[in-house]
Amino acid sequence: MLVLSRQRDETIMIGDEVEITVVDIRGDKVRLGITAPARVAVHRKEVYEAIQAENRHAAGSADPSITSIRPGANAGSVRPQAISRLRGASTPQPGAVVAPANGHTQTEQSKRRA
């Protein structure tokens, strides 16, 4: 552990982006001002430990009905049946020709282009 001595209004730099300034000293309490980018989380240690404990608890109490879902599997893809159900339409049968929004099948569209 690096131990540094600082007086009021003096600063310690951590890397290029984090500044810790001694704002006030009263008895056995020291007030620190911390300037850091928003992407750097800054917490008191007891708050950090509480967050970590809550995260561990939440990770261990997953709903059994969703344990079969794999994060990242088929990312970005949605099955047409799911979209049809969301829109309230019936699910097309396997092998059925589904017309696009303009009402023409892909074969009809190809004939028109020729």
Question: Would you mind describing this structure in some detail?
Answer:
The chain is 28% helix and 18% strand. It has 114 residues and is an alpha+beta fold. It has a domain of 49 residues. A hairpin with a 3-residue loop joins strand 1 and strand 2. The longest helix is centred in the middle third of the chain and has 16 residues. The model has no long low-confidence stretch (mean pLDDT 75).
Features:
three-stranded antiparallel β-sheet; elongated; alpha+beta; 114 residues
How large is the count of helical segments? 3
- Overall 3D shape: elongated
Radius of gyration: 29 Å
The level of helicity is: 25-40%
**What percent strand?**
15-25%
- Mean pLDDT figure: 75
Per DSSP E runs of 2 or more residues, the count of β-strands stands at 3
Any low-confidence stretches, pLDDT <50, length ≥5? Answer: none
The helix/strand series, from N terminus to C terminus, equals EEEHHH
What separation lies between the terminal Cα atoms?
77 Å
Question: TL;DR?
Answer:
This protein has 114 residues and is an alpha+beta fold. 28% of the residues lie in helices and 18% in strands. It has a domain at 11-59.
SSE layout and pairing:
Blueprint: E1 11-14, E2 18-26, E3 29-35, H1 45-60, H2 80-87, H3 106-113
Antiparallel strand pairs: 1-2, 2-3
